[in-house]
Amino acid sequence: MSKSTLLQDPAKRKLLFSAGISWLFDAMDVGIISFIVAALSVDWKLGAQQIGLLAAINSIGMAVGAAVAGASADRYGRRSVLLVTLLIFSVASGLSAIATGFIMLCILRFITGFGLGGELPVASTLVSESFSATERGRAVVLLESFWACGWIIAALISYFVIPAYGWRAAFLIGALPALYALYLRRAIQDSPRFNEQRSRRLTLKERASSVWSANFRKSTITLWILWFVVVFSYYGIFLWLPSVMVLKGFSLVKSFQYVLIMTLAQLPGYFTAAYFIEKFGRKFVLVTYLLLTAFSAIWFSTAATEAMLIAAGISLSFFNLGAWGAMYAYTPELYPTRVRSTGVGFAASFGRVGGIIGPYLVGLLVSRHHSITSIFTIFFIAIVFGALVLLFFGKETKGTDPDQAASS
Q1: What is the pTM of this model?
Q2: Left, alpha or beta for 166 (phi > 0: left; psi -120 to 50: alpha)?
Q3: Best-predicted range by mean pLDDT among 151-160, 165-174, 180-189, 386-395?
Q4: Closest alpha carbon to 3 in 182, 116, 143
Q5: Which H helix or E strand runs over 279?
Q6: Angle 191-14-171 (CA atoms, 0-180°, nearest 5)?
Q7: How many CA atoms lie within 13 A of 159 on its CB side?
Q8: What is the CA radius of gyration of the chain?
Q9: Each residue of 175-208: pLDDT tens digit?
Q10: Rounded Cα distance, 240 and 226, in Å
Q11: pLDDT band at residue 1, thresholds of 50, 70 and 90?
Q12: Residue 28: closest CA among 112, 99, 110
């Protein structure tokens, strides 16, 4: 099914774009903090370990939020939980602008992370189960493409706003999604699949047991490993990207400019993944894009010239974010509707542990004067391991119906 056919249904188009804008705001906040820490390192004289700790605390909040929101969405509905998490992260992001010290900022970033981490798995679950088996993979990858748009906006805000008005102004812009929640409240509804099963809702214990039952245990383990290595590498690399550029000798403004160029490559990464995922399947796209991400990471770390650095960064953005889109499409397809959001939320939550370790590990190693190449080699090994686990143990879900499989 072509992308144009996918978007012909007005109701589905509205759902995809409405959820996509909330996804964009999520990415904008995550992107802005990666630029803000580079500015804070100068303004507040933060060391590498403190920058890593700030990023890690944000990911701790995302881990808790993903688990809580994922489980809550199977009980209270995708729409309600999506709205609540959107409000939590936007208000906390806006309040970050008045942080008076490092500890206060860390607390607010934990709350922001809770909302961010909760919204993402719920939004992808809602979109996935609102489309047919032949279109849901492409729909979720297109949803994920809004993440690239959010990062591009974050890079633009950081390039034009932070140097002129300071990092507090960037945080204030992060409060705008609170207004969008008023529109979203009317624009989206729970999926028909979820509404059909409202009367047969399971308890949290039953849902958690189901995710780890014999039917799903192998898929759950594979999925958790996949999420861990993707989130570990993404947040370890991309939250540090502006700072790594500074370490490579570029000015703060120049590093923002180069990261903006690299970020633009995320969009074609998503769009190619959206095309290939329905043509060749989820595993093919994930394994291929992950392996190419791993090699791009090594290329980036060893690049010696500006042109080579930008080319490697573009390749890294292209394949890493394409893999992200495929992973979000793949995850909800492994579980039936009654436990889907719980399964997605738990996988995302475990993945966020990687998001905690990745940025903090980079900060620790940078503070101990390890080379960028040696640090990126760790990400190379982790990504290749995750790709091989998926290749040998992962289940292909293209065209399958998890509700039918669970009832058979």
Answers
A1: 0.81
A2: left
A3: 386-395
A4: 143
A5: helix 266-279
A6: 100
A7: 15
A8: 20
A9: 888 888 778 877 788 877 787 766 667 788 888 8
A10: 21
A11: very low
A12: 112
